[in-house]
Amino acid sequence: MSGYARGEDRQSLVHNLALFARKHKYPHAQFAREGDLKAVAELGCLCFGASAFSLEKFRSLYRVNPRILLVVKDNNGMLKGYFDIMPVKAAFAEDLKSGKKREIDLSPSDLFSEKELREGQAGCIYLAALVTRSSSERNKGPDRTFCKLVLAGMERIQQITMTNPGLSDLLALAYQEKDGVPGPATPYLTRFKFQETGKSQEGYSAHILQSGAHYGGLEEVFSTISLVREKHARVNRAKKRIAAGAIFSALLIIVATILLKKSELTRTFIMELGIGVTAAVIGLILEPFLKLRSLLKTE
């Protein structure tokens, strides 16, 4: 993992993430498309060198599960960062922790597809790497790309654990530089209360964060994400109601225009009906906004 966010301790980092989730538009990142894989592989190579996953490796894993990569891009479509979150089978997780395998040994058969997730097999959620282009920039406040990726990653973790409760422990390796200096992920693993459980074959310390410990006290961030997701869903429902109301009103006007030309009696009837239906449509459109406003005030 690689990234940067200001904060002297875990508490301030968790607070910054929760604050960012409340203030910014949801969703925070998107699942990568196949066309993004080349940029992901190139950025990984810049960060990890020869130990990074190749484009061919990403493609083989992506074919098994296209939801393993979250990406953030700028307005011009340039990749700003990625986070690969891989639901892996228990055998690979144990071999990685015991030093029998390296990260690069991960094969498509070690990865759960979305269909296999629903079958309830045991395993781990492997946090392979979080990489941002701005990881070396020490800006004031939390790094926006870092926060977007972490929050989207937490959202993805929630999705996986809801699909398969037996696949909930988080596994990560603490990358080290060639001279043995700990990589930038190590402080974050410590802040998030990951526990060291072994070393991979290349000598990187393996860390586990168990769901039974509420993911190291990250309840505040998870609950914030849930609230933001609910608000996003309410807004989407409101938009659908507006669209349905607009279509219905347009059809009513067309029908009324045709019927008005036929008789005076029909005209009177249609006018009365139109007034009633218009009032109902306005009420339908305004209802979600009034509910949303009251909910926002209470929250």
Number of H/I helices: 10
User: How far do the termini sit from each other?
Assistant: 34 Å
Assigned CATH architecture of the largest domain: 3-Layer(aba) Sandwich
* Main beta sheet strand tally, sense and closure: 7 strands, mixed
Global structural class: alpha+beta
List the helices and strands in order.
Answer: HEHHEEHHEHEHEEHHH
Residue-averaged pLDDT, rounded?
Answer: 80
Tell me the domain tally: 2
Strand content: 5-15%
Number of strand elements: 7
Major β-sheet strand ordering? 1-2-3-4-5-7-6
The value of Rg in angstroms is 25 Å
CATH superfamily of the largest domain: Gcn5-related N-acetyltransferase (GNAT)
**What is the C-level CATH assignment of the largest domain?**
Alpha Beta
> How helix-rich are the residues, as a percent range?
40-55%
CATH topology of the largest domain: Aminopeptidase
Query: What overall geometry do the principal axes of the alpha carbons give?
Result: elongated
Low-confidence stretches: 1-8, 135-141, 295-299
Describe this structure in words.
The chain has 299 residues and is of the alpha+beta class. The protein is 52% helix and 14% strand. The chain has 2 domains: 10-217, Gcn5-related N-acetyltransferase (GNAT) (Aminopeptidase), CATH 3.40.630; 229-298. It has helices at 10-23, 37-48, 55-64, 90-97, 114-117, 144-163, 185-191, 214-217, 219-260, 264-298, and strands spanning 30-31, 69-73, 79-89, 123-132, 170-174, 195-199, 205-209. It is elongated and about 85 Å long.
